[in-house]
Design goal:
Elements (H helix, E strand, L loop, with lengths): L4 E5 L3 H13 L4 E5 L3 H10 L4 E2 L3 H5 L4 E4 L6 H8 L8 E4 L5 H10 L4 E2 L2 E3 L20 E4 L7 H13 L3 E4 L2 H28 L1 H10 L3 H10 L3 H10 L1 H23 L3 H20 L14
Parallel strand pairs: 1-2, 1-4, 2-3, 4-5, 5-6, 8-9
Antiparallel strand pairs: 7-8
Bound molecules: 1,4-dihydronicotinamide adenine dinucleotide and 3-(4-hydroxy-phenyl)pyruvic acid.
1,4-dihydronicotinamide adenine dinucleotide binds next to α1, α4 and α10.
Enzyme class: oxidoreductase
Keywords: Amino-acid biosynthesis, Aromatic amino acid biosynthesis, NAD, Oxidoreductase, Tyrosine biosynthesis
EC number: 1.3.1.12
Length: 300
């Protein structure tokens, strides 16, 4: 099937970037959009994030071959319930949520018998809202599709093609595996950033000026991640609870082992780990998986 019209529900960073990317790279595809927040709809119209910003969700999805839910993962179920009954027959319903198992369950429950194919573009920044989107966000980035067992193959291929058109590379895996992998590569790193910045801020009464003055290097990088959207990340941790808790358990054990090495003066253990992690970083850069530009995530 060929996708000729796309409806984007939620016009923040991800929804806005999809709208701009489609208009840039596939101008034959019609774009409509809707956001629950009237201010966001106004800003989306001003920026031209989609061809038509609709004032009702039913108008936005009525003619769409593909509907992409771009709302926080905790809002996917209610957003899906709102589009049920207004969809074009045969439409593909997808999303961009950062966790996949709960989204697959929520969408399948709200849209029984329809073509639900969840997806996760592994591309983003710490920014959010309708001003944050940009057309090149998905270029050379992975988009992971997590179709349920028995999903219509032609629809999976049509969705994969859509993301390739936006510049993404495609991977297909099951939702449970996705959630475990992303817990360690994305969700726990965000939790660590929120924690360390919170810990430093709790010290601020004593050393307020020093936290700002010496926030070069490592701490500064953590503050970028810790500036990420609170609603989005609250939802990720609540929706991907079991995978996050599993990985957090492993992380805590490893942290405790390092604590012991430091206490006992075991430099060999520290040096061995730091050498291993340095090699991982160098491998990522050699594979071209590093941030696409030095400004990535800062200038948008
Ligand atoms: N921010 C990032 O870097 C990335 C985010 N994601 C995922 O993309 C999704 C969207 O994230 P962002 O675009 O960053 O968030 P955002 O906060 O920029 O935009 C979300 C928009 O959804 C709207 N919304 C909420 N509930 C709604 C509903 N029921 N109906 C219509 N609109 C509704 C909000 O008003 C808001 O404008 C999340 O599920 C997130 O996990 C995926 C990859 C990267
Ligand atoms: O800004 C960053 O470094 C990110 O990690 C962006 C991001 C956030 C959430 C995702 O599901 C995917 C990418």
């Amino acid at each position: 099937m060929s996708i000729q019209s796309v409806a984007i529900i939620g016009l923040g960073l991800l929804g806005g970037s999809i709208g701009l990317a489609v208009q840039d790279r596939a101008s034959d595809i019609t774009t409509t959009g809707y956001d629950a927040d009237a201010d966001v709809r106004g800003k989306a119209a001003e920026r031209g994030l989609v061809g038509t910003v609709c004032t009702s969700v039913s108008d936005a999805v009525a003619e769409a071959d593909l509907v992409i839910l771009c709302v926080p993962v905790g809002a996917m179920g209610s957003a899906a319930a709102e589009i049920a009954g207004h969809l074009k027959p045969g439409a593909i319903i997808s999303d961009v949520g950062s966790s996949k198992q709960s989204v697959l369950e929520d969408l399948s429950a709200a849209l029984p018998g329809l073509t639900v194919i969840p997806a996760h573009p592994v591309a983003g920044t710490e920014q959010s809202g309708p001003e944050a989107g940009f057309a090149t966000l998905f270029e050379n980035r992975w988009c992971i599709l997590t179709p349920p067992d028995g999903a219509d193959e032609a629809s999976v291929e049509a969705l994969a093609d859509f993301w390739r058109t936006l510049g993404s590379k495609i991977e297909i895996m099951d939702a449970e595996h996705h959630d475990l992998v992303l817990a360690v590569t994305s969700h726990i790193p965000h939790l660590i950033a929120y924690t360390i910045v919170g810990t430093a801020s709790d010290l601020e009464d004593v050393t307020r000026s020093e936290v700002i003055k010496y926030s070069a290097g490592g701490f500064r990088d953590f503050t970028r991640i810790a500036a990420s959207d609170p609603t989005m990340w609250r939802d990720v941790f609540l929706q991907n609870r079991s995978a996050v808790l599993e990985m957090l358990g492993r992380f805590t054990e490893d942290l405790t082992a390092l604590q012991r090495a430091i206490r006992s003066g075991d430099g060999e253990t520290l040096h061995e780990l730091f050498s291993r992690t340095r090699a991982i970083r160098r491998g990522i850069i050699e594979e071209g998986q590093d941030d696409p530009s030095p400004d990535f995530g800062r200038g948008h």
